[in-house]
Amino acid sequence: MFATGAHAERIVILGDSLSDAYDIPREAGWVHLLDERLGEAHEVVDGSISGDTSAGAVSRIDGLLEAHQPQVLIVILGGNDGLRGLPPSALEKNLAELIERGRAAGARVALMQIRLPPNLGPVYIERFEGVYPALAERFDIELIPFFLEGLFDRPGMLMDDGIHPTEAAQPKLADFMEPYVRELIGL
Predict the structure, then answer these.
(1) How far, CA to CA in Å, does 175 sit from each of 2, 58, 88, 148, 172?
(2) At what angle do helices 88-104 and 122-139 cross, to 10 degrees?
(3) pLDDT tens digit string along 30-70?
(4) Is residue 176 left, alpha or beta, with left meaning phi > 0 and alpha meaning psi from -120 to 50?
(5) Which end of the chain lies in a sparser environment, N or C, as judged by fewer CB atoms within 10 Å?
(6) Distances in Å between the alpha carbon of 88 and those of 84, 94, 99, 119, 147?
(7) Rounded to 5 degrees, what are φ and ψ at 59?
């Protein structure tokens, strides 16, 4: 018998527009597609908000954890922090807080590496992107590679802004994420 509703194992995706089905129907987004693939015994909750920053996520994480009581928390944040020039030390502090609160709530936590556009400069990018592997090592958690990496040069995968995945890209993002999520939930 499948678990449903309150008894389903829950995976919360804590992210920004890259996970929030930006400018496409929510049911076409990769989080919804992944939820359908995992079946009734698992529920993938989209806790993403377009435009969110790591600080914004810190301010709302407790409510998400309390409302959904996830077994798995996947943090996919930082792009908006980088585009706004947030100091890498502030990003690191916020992401560490999210990881610690997720663990304190009993969730297995994973973190996705975020990549920034080259126009932000090599020194800033190196310091910013270095936060992710350092935190994964410090907390001994899964570091998931950036899921847009293989889509940048593929026609039709990114919107005209060069940042957001198109509706056509969503199944590919679900394909990318599925093995990581299955491993985290023990499938």
Answers:
(1) 23, 28, 30, 12, 5
(2) 20
(3) 999 999 999 999 999 999 999 999 999 999 999 999 999 99
(4) alpha
(5) N
(6) 11, 10, 16, 16, 21
(7) -70, -20
Q: How is residue 77 written in tokens?
A: 């944040």
Contact between residue 29 and residue 19 where contact means Cβ atoms under 8 Å apart: yes
What does the buried/exposed string (b/e) look like for 157-184 if buried means 16 or more CB atoms within 10 Å of the residue's CB?
Answer: bbeeeeebbbeebbebbbebbbebbeeb
- Only one residue has tokens 């943090």, namely 75
Residue 177 tokens, joined: 């994420």
Percent with pLDDT over 90 in the chain: 88
d(CA 157, CA 164): 9
Q: How many CA atoms lie within 13 A of 65 on its CB side?
A: 22
CA distances from 70 to 13, 83, 117, 124, 176 (A): 10, 29, 32, 34, 21
pLDDT of residue 7: 60
Q: Say which residue the tokens 């992107």 belong to.
A: 129
Question: Active-site positions?
Answer: 17, 161, 164
Instruction: Tokens for 61, please give them.
Output: 């994480």
**Residue 186: DSSP 8-state:** T
Cα of 81 vs its chain's centroid, Å: 14
